[in-house]
Specification:
The structure is a single chain. This protein is of the alpha+beta class. It folds into 3 domains: 31 residues, no CATH class; 76 residues, Ubiquitin-like (UB roll) (Roll), CATH 3.10.20.30; 67 residues, Orthogonal Bundle (DNA polymerase, domain 1), CATH 1.10.150. The chain is 28% helix and 12% strand. A 5-stranded mixed sheet has the order 2-1-5-3-4, with helices on both faces. Strand 3 and strand 4 form a beta hairpin. Helix 3 crosses helix 6 and helix 4 packs parallel to helix 6. The longest helix has 14 residues. The chain is globular and about 65 Å long. The protein starts with 14 loop residues before the first helix and ends with a helix. About 5% of the residues have low confidence.
């Protein structure tokens, strides 16, 4: 093999050459002049079905009723509930899953509806703040929120109520720390947390 004046082979790779090649891309395979593979990326996630850009008709079970909606693929569950079904109890505040004002239940589990696509709901049942009361009779947590003045501007209230109802459904005798843990993702800019905690503990006592 022919040597260069410096004694290095033509096939060798310099530090500068490697960095230059590594910086070309972070996806795919980069082949340098030397023949060295800098990066090799392979997709490891399954590909979903291709969905058209226009609106599609879907069926969704909400608060025990089957509903038919026409939604675009980009439509979130929160937008579908508010705009398509006129269930405005679910609030959109941060619209990025950080405040939990839009909390609803999906098969009984609290989720951020602003981060859930309507098309992904499928056969799962959605429960909103409108669905936790019994007709005209409020849920004990809702009554306690009124009694203990746990609402201020009201934007965070539906999400707070949903989190607290879910807690009491699975823990009939919660401690203050349990309530704090259950509402840790619910942000209240008015700072009404102490009233929320008192209301939830009061509702737990009445539900025994």
């Amino acid at each position: 093999m022919k040597k260069l004046a410096s004694g290095k082979s033509k096939k060798s790779i310099s530090r500068r050459g490697f960095i230059r090649g590594a910086g070309l891309t972070t996806a795919g395979t980069v082949v340098l002049n030397s023949g060295v593979l800098a990066f090799e990326h392979k997709e490891s996630y399954p590909k979903g079905d291709l969905i058209a850009e226009g609106a599609v008709e879907i069926k969704m079970k909400v608060n025990g009723l089957s509903r038919t909606l026409s939604v675009e693929p980009r439509t979130t569950l929160a937008d579908a509930l508010r705009d398509q079904l006129d269930m405005t109890g679910t609030k959109i505040v941060c619209d990025r899953g950080s405040c939990s004002a839009c909390t609803v239940y999906l098969d009984g589990k609290p989720i951020n509806s602003c981060m859930t696509m309507a098309l992904d709901v499928g056969q799962q049942e959605v429960t909103t703040i409108e669905g936790i009361s019994s007709g005209e009779k409020l849920h004990p947590v809702q009554e306690a929120f009124i009694e203990h003045d746990a609402t201020q501007c009201g934007y965070c209230t539906p999400g707070m109520v949903m989190s607290c109802v879910h807690l009491l459904k699975h823990n009939s005798n919660p401690t203050l720390d349990d309530v704090k843990h259950a509402t840790r993702g619910n942000l209240c800019r008015c700072g009404t947390y102490p009233h929320v905690f008192k209301a939830t503990l009061s509702a737990a006592e009445k539900m025994k």
